[in-house]
Amino acid sequence: MVIGIDCRLWEESGVGRYTQNLVKNFSLLRTPHEFVFFAQRRHVHQIQSIIGKRKWRIIAVKSKWHSLSEQALLPFILKRAKIDLMHFPYMSAPLLYNRPFVVTIHDLIPYHFVTGEATTLPPFVYRLKRIAYKTVLSSAIKKAKRIIAVSNATKEAIINNFSINQQKVSVIYEGVDSAIHTSSHLLSEEEKNAASFLKNTEYLLYIGNAYPHKNLKKLIEAFRLIGEEYPSLKLFLVGKDDHFYKRLRLFIQEMGLTKAVIHFGFVSDPFLYYLYKNAHALVAPSLMEGFGLSVLEAMANRCLVVCSDIPVFRELYLDTVLYCDPKKTQDIARVLKKTILLKTHERTVFVQKAHARTYHFSWETAAKETIDVYESCSLASSE
Q1: Within this chain, do residues 118 and 197 fall inside the same structural domain, yes or no?
Q2: What is the pLDDT of residues 62-79, one digit of tens each?
Q3: N or C end of the chain, less CB within 10 A?
């Protein structure tokens, strides 16, 4: 079977990590299938270095996701590639694409969070964009041969919102990215200097974007509540700088916390490893998530985790993390303070349980199960 993989979001934080790890692990498996990767030109060399001498094809495409080109041109590019099955690791399957495909749905967050805060667009344009998003998502879910959900919580949301047969949806958990275990000697000189400066700093850590559902304003308000009692404690925010982080920095300024709450922007994997390893705790206060990969990465690096008490985190991380009510500033502050007051042996128990839990999540297993989904599509077509 010739299988196409949409790699256009190769560098995007969540979907990009997902796609990269699938491609890496496909290349390590013994599989009779041929793969064709559709990627932006600047990523072709990187993908080639991963697949090595395998005679798999890489096709450079210019169509950006969420664009008219994606809808109008990409279907014809895919058709010319003569693939048997296409995998879209994100919901943006072109409306005009009518050949068999699999789609991965990570979450339905834009479907549920209807707020002008989640966009930089004028209200009218934002409403049009939401209509387009819902149209593309609905089409992808209805037309896909199989749907991959990254958690049971996401699967349940898909079934409840789109009334589809649950047999069509396979849950495949994500894994821990080996790049996050890269040793510190790979730090750049600038990062080594930063690491040296941070060596004796006690800090809480947040990894991710600053979209409204991430609930960062509530986190910062909670951090301020405990700040007077713990004046040396810092809050580090790590995520690509954009309009949402710019807006959040204004909020931090208004709160008088510019010296205590620091936005690092994008960081390399080795430096991310360093930050996980030395953080007092990772905090994930989201109102909604599909998986929460930063939580898993923190657990793998023996970092204590505080996260919101939402179904997906309960499903994935059980009792290995500290939970807070993400809608209540006081409760977030209470649990942040609890991380400081934990005795050494109590912290060790949490960290060890969390680290053991990470062995249930493997990219190798995810890759094998994804190929099983592909093969189930082939069997269904031949019946």
Answers
A1: no
A2: 998 888 899 999 999 999
A3: C
What pLDDT, in 10s, does the model give residues 146-175? 999 999 999 999 999 998 999 999 999 999
For residues 91 and 218, membership in a common domain is answered with no
Tokens 């979001």 identify what position? 9
Q: Which pair of structure tokens corresponds to residue 131?
A: 């209509």
Query: Is residue 194 domain-shared with residue 247, that is, in the same domain?
Result: yes
Residues 87, 162, single domain; the answer is yes
Among candidates 48, 26, 30, which has minimal Cα distance to 39? 48
Question: Looking at residue 319, which CATH number applies to its domain?
Answer: 3.40.50.2000
Maximum CA extent, the chain: 67
The whole-model pTM stands at 0.90
The pair phi, psi for residue 259, each rounded to 5°, is: -90, -15
Question: Do 142 and 100 sit in the same domain of this protein?
Answer: yes
In 3-state terms the chain splits into helix, strand, coil percentages (rounded to 5) of 50, 15, 35
Structural domain harbouring 138: 2-175+362-382
CB atoms within 10 A of CB 229: 10
DSSP of 166-186: GGGEEE------GGGG--GGG
